[in-house]
Structure formats: C-alpha cells, structure tokens
C-alpha cells in the first residue's frame, strides 16, 4: 500500500519594488502551515516598516482548509493594523469559491473597504458575490 505524502508548504519573501513586499506561498495552507504564514507576514512587516502593501502570491497554493482561511484572516488583521494594503494575487478558482462561500471574499480582497472589481465586469453585491449584468 502506498501512503500519500503531504504536500510541502513553502513561503518566501521578496521586496523587489519600493514599498511593496511579495510573499509567495506554495503547497497546502492548512493546520500545519497556517502559523508559518502568519509568522512570515508578521516578520515581513517588521523587516519592511516603510512597506505600503503586502502581496500574497497564491499562485503556487495547492489547497486551503479552514485553518488556512483563518491564517489569511489573521494576515489581513495584521496588515490592516499596520496600515498596509493586502493583495491576494494568483487566486485559484477553488480559493475564490472558498472565499465566496465563507463570506470572506470582500473582506480579504478589499483594501480600504472597497471591493476589487471582478475581472468579468460584474458588480459585487453586499454578500461579496457577483451580480451578472
């Protein structure tokens, strides 16, 4: 019998643009990795006090469970407290669905309380879902 191996979690920080820090995330954001992400973002905020935005590059994210979602909410709280905008880049359709189903889409994607416009031009409704035409 073959035992499945858990996906490795990876996170890296770069500050290749002035006042912008990119945190690249790969693997599964879950119970085992949630604290690592929050700690990494907290350290990035401390290491880059002039940062105006944190960009979470989630293009390498394989899965996100309830603890992963909790970590994203904690990251949002940390960045908001620091007065730093949070961007969730490279969101997969699965992550988009999770954020919408849990009612956290607008909260996590709306710096300053204004929802990001969906790429298809649809308008978000108060529950963070999109209304087509």
Give a quick set of tags describing it.
single chain; 133 residues; alpha/beta; Transcription Regulator spoIIAA; 4-stranded mixed beta sheet; two-stranded antiparallel sheet; 6 strands; globular
Short description:
The protein is of the alpha/beta class. It has 4 helices and 6 strands; from the N terminus they run E-E-H-E-H-E-H-H-E-E. The protein is globular, with a radius of gyration of 15 Å.
Can you give a write-up of this model?
With 133 residues, the chain is of the alpha/beta class. The chain has one domain: STAS domain (Transcription Regulator spoIIAA). It has 4 helices and 6 strands. A 4-stranded mixed β-sheet has the order 1-2-3-4. Strand 3, helix 2 and strand 4 (85-89) form a beta-alpha-beta unit. The longest helix has 16 residues, at 66-81.
Q: Radius of gyration, rounded? A: 15 Å
Query: Which term fits the overall shape?
Result: globular
Low-confidence stretches: 113-133
What is the share of helical residues? 25-40%
Q: Can you tell me the CATH superfamily?
A: STAS domain
Give the amount of beta strand, in percent. 25-35%
Lateral strand order in the biggest sheet: 1-2-3-4
Number of helices: 4
Number of domains: 1
Largest sheet: 4 strands, mixed
Architecture per CATH nomenclature, i.e. the level-2 architecture? 2-Layer Sandwich
What do we call the CATH topology?
Answer: Transcription Regulator spoIIAA
Instruction: Note the quaternary state here.
Output: single chain
- Based on secondary structure, the structural category is alpha/beta
For the record, what CATH class applies? Alpha Beta
- N- to C-terminal distance: 52 Å
The succession of helices and strands, N to C, reads EEHEHEHHEE
The overall pLDDT, averaged over residues, is: 84
């Amino acid at each position: 019998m073959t035992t499945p191996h858990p996906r490795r979690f990876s996170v890296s920080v770069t500050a290749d643009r002035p006042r912008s820090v990119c945190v690249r995330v790969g693997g599964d954001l879950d119970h085992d990795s949630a604290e690592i992400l929050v700690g990494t973002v907290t350290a990035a905020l401390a290491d880059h006090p002039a940062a105006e935005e944190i960009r979470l590059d989630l293009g390498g994210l394989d899965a996100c469970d309830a603890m992963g979602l909790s970590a994203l909410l904690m990251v949002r709280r940390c960045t908001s407290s620091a007065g730093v905008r949070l961007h969730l880049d490279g969101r997969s359709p699965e992550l988009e669905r999770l954020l919408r189903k849990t009612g956290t889409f607008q909260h996590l994607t709306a710096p300053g309380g204004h929802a990001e416009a969906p790429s298809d031009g649809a308008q978000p409704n108060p529950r963070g879902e999109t209304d087509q035409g």
